[in-house]
Design brief:
heterodimer, A: Cytochrome Bc1 Complex, Chain D, domain 2, Cytochrome Bc1 Complex, Chain D, domain 2, two-stranded antiparallel ribbon, two-stranded antiparallel sheet, 4 strands, B: two-stranded antiparallel ribbon
């Protein structure tokens, strides 16, 4: 167990890049340094109803549920109040909402944050350790295998290193200078009605989060990709709020300008949130992005 | 209105035969502005993206498209040359200054009961509270001989009975105020009351029977029943919720959509709390149209099944895939953000037109003072008729809902109607 933990720490560093990359710029970004870009294929995701045609339908379905109802189903592994779907919207099947589609074809891959090659289970655990501020899911557990099966099902028929349009959460211009004072005002007028006046989120009658907390003890730690200003800004620009437009499937995004997204992202990412002690292992070979929190 | 003001108004009337440039007491103009909002005049008399009250909005009627008119005080193209009597006759009886009959798209049968004091305030507002605009009216697309107007006078004689509002002493003041607003300026029945063979509203008031506000199909939407049916009417709503809904477009369980979103946007959000409470009080007094309503029962199983990954029921998997992100596995949505589907009277409506349409084409809530974010429902035009039917049938039969299934053919009809637009 202890050995596994150490190994995880090493892996963690690897993921950092992938994670940051994955979460926002997408997996392929992590790979791009090493390999030439190939043309992206149009985004397409299979329908849930098709899961039942698969020989391992039960496993895929479990994976889907674990990634959507994470806190409830994996309480030992989720240390905060988030589900995977808090950042990977709509079951990981929404373009620019950090989709899972095509991701499995890009692993294993070198990740600058980790400084080495990592596999998809390691990458997923990067999220559990950082975005969910919890514990890694054992790579050979039925739960991890189920999550991997769901990822693979989403990428069925895609060749190795497939690039899919809409991967990650898009980009914002990193030369934009964030103004956290304006960001605070934007947060209060545009975000607080769902995420709470103090970033605490909104819970339902069962005490489960409807809208995830953006800071505080129940939110992601500083090691998460979402803790980075430009990563968060791209996500906010393209995905917040959900139900802003009539575009299927979520009507998401498009409410803020790039500058507003950068301002509000700077504000909420820099509110108090859990630390990530293993941060010291990140970016061992350099390449730390300018908005890294440490 | 204080008597002294009315005296002044009377003097003004006497002194100036041409009223367009007459000055009115500011309080009266403001009162008129409020009443014009209560009547939602702007909704029809404004073209999309156009200036308020200049008209030009296309309105489809059974015989062709007509265009709303310029009701700014421009003397040539608007109603600036109207005397009070001419204005009153147009609003209450549907007869224009030159004597031609208005199409009953103008809800003059409802406006007929507006009090004299309110009518005078409306006149004051339209003469001096609105900026004159010299935009000519647009001729209707109705072809001759259907464009001949005189039959409309017969229509008006049959259906546009002049009605005076008489308070019902068996009800309290709030009920009577609510009745006055709902039956009169609010002209709620224009959409929510089914129409008869002559395109007339089948009932104009509660005394006319259970058709009044019993829900009606209009313009490929279904304006839901405002009567007391438990599941599909307002039976499960409290008066407070109704008032909140009209004020903000939301309650903790529901959100306004379709044409009613515009009504909240342009009209009801500006009404006083007293008037909204009165409207709610009146509406809640209307008994269910269908006699004894079925009592909704709670079903906790739906949530548990979905959470456990039991998607055996047709439409369940697609509900989780496309709907649950906002409306959630428990069908409760998020208070004041995403409407609940469980126990939602629009979801349980007997007529599924609106339900199908909002899934296919989406919808939008208005921005109101208390709820400034105009959130939207995405449309899902790429789902097949059968998929939409399955999802809606699932939604209508789970949690606390017990409504009939939706058939693919019904979805196809709405889709075809939307594509024709």
């Amino acid at each position: 167990m202890f050995a596994a933990l150490i190994e995880e720490k090493t892996m963690r560093s690897i993921f950092t890049m992938a994670m940051a990359g994955l979460m926002l710029v997408g997996l392929p970004a992590a790979v791009s340094a090493a390999e030439p870009e190939t043309a992206a294929i149009p985004f397409r995701a299979p329908r849930d109803a098709d899961i039942f045609k698969e020989p391992n339908a039960a496993q895929i379905l479990l994976g889907k549920r674990l990634l959507s109802d994470t806190k409830h189903l994996l309480p030992e592994n989720v240390g905060d109040g988030l589900n995977c779907t808090s950042c990977h919207l709509g079951e990981g099947k929404v373009p620019l909402a950090s989709p899972y589609v095509g991701v499995s074809t890009n692993f294993p891959a070198y990740a600058a944050r980790a400084g080495k090659e990592i596999d998809l289970a390691q990458r997923i655990n990067g999220c559990f350790l950082r975005s969910e501020n919890g514990k890694a899911v054992p790579p050979d557990s039925p739960e991890m295998k189920a999550m991997l099966a769901y990822f693979q099902w989403l990428s069925a028929g895609m060749g190795p290193k497939t690039r899919v349009e809409g991967r990650g959460a898009g980009k914002v211009d990193t030369s934009l200078v964030p103004d956290p004072v304006k960001g605070k005002a934007i947060y209060e007028t545009r975000c607080a009605s769902c995420h709470g006046d103090n970033g605490e989120g909104v819970k339902d009658v069962r005490g489960e989060f409807i809208f995830p907390p953006l800071w505080g003890d129940e939110s992601f730690n500083i090691g998460a990709g979402m803790a980075r200003t430009y990563t968060a800004a791209a996500f906010v620009k393209n995905n917040m709020p959900v139900a802003w437009g009539t575009n299927a499937p979520l009507g998401q995004g498009g409410a803020l300008t790039d500058q507003e997204a950068v301002d509000v992202a700077e504000y909420f990412t820099h509110q108090p949130r859990p630390d990530f002690p293993a941060k010291v292992k990140d970016w061992p070979n350099g390449g730390k992005p300018k908005d890294a929190r440490y | 209105m204080k008597p002294i003001k009315w005296l002044w108004f009377g003097l003004a009337l006497a002194a100036s035969p041409s009223l367009a440039d007459t000055s009115f007491p500011p309080e009266q103009v403001e009162q008129g502005r409020y009443l014009a909002q209560a009547g939602d005049c702007v909704a029809c008399h404004t073209a999309p993206g156009g200036k308020e009250f200049v008209g030009g909005l296309g309105i489809d009627t059974p015989i062709g498209r007509i265009y709303s008119t310029n009701i700014t005080p421009d003397a040539k193209y608007g109603i600036g040359s109207y005397s009070y009597d001419e204005f009153e006759r147009a609003v209450r009886k549907g007869v224009a200054k030159d004597g031609h009959a208005l199409y009953p798209a103008m809800p003059f049968p409802s406006y007929a009961m507006v009090s004299d004091a309110d009518m005078k305030a409306l006149y004051a507002f339209f003469m001096s509270g609105v900026e004159a605009n010299a935009t000519p009216n647009r001729a209707s697309d109705i072809i001759w001989p259907l464009s001949i107007r005189w039959p409309l006078r017969i229509w008006a004689r049959i259906y546009g009975n002049s009605r005076e509002f008489k308070p019902d002493p068996s009800h309290d003041a709030a009920w009577n105020r609510g009745a006055y607003l709902v039956e009169g300026l609010g002209h709620c029945g224009s959409c929510h009351t089914p129409r008869g063979i002559g395109f007339q509203e089948k009932a104009m008031s509660p005394q006319d029977g259970v058709n009044y506000l019993a829900g009606a199909k209009i313009d490929n939407w279904f304006a839901k029943s405002l009567r007391g049916e438990q599941a599909s009417g307002l039976g499960a709503w409290t008066e407070e919720e109704l008032a909140q809904f009209l004020k903000s477009g939301r309650t903790s369980r529901s959100a306004v959509f379709a044409s009613m979103a515009e009504v909240v946007d342009h009209s009801t959000q500006y009404l006083s709390q007293d008037d909204l409470a009165a409207i709610a009080h009146f509406l809640k007094s209307l008994p269910p149209a269908d006699g004894t309503p079925p009592v909704a029962t709670k079903s906790a199983d739906s949530f548990t099944n979905l959470r456990n990954g039991d998607y055996q029921q047709s439409g369940a998997a697609a509900y989780v895939e496309f709907c649950a992100a906002c409306h959630r596995l428990d069908g409760n949505g998020a208070p004041r953000i995403y409407p609940a589907l469980s126990g939602n009277s629009a979801v349980n409506s007997g007529d599924t037109t609106s339900l199908i349409r909002i899934v296919l084409a989406g919808g939008r809530m208005p921005a109101t003072a208390s709820e400034p974010h105009p959130l939207a429902m995405p449309g899902f035009p790429k789902l097949t008729d059968q998929e939409v039917a399955d999802i809606l049938s699932f939604v209508r039969s789970n949690w606390s809902n017990h409504a009939e299934a939706v058939k693919a053919g019904q979805v196809g009809k709405v889709r075809a109607a939307l594509e024709q637009r």
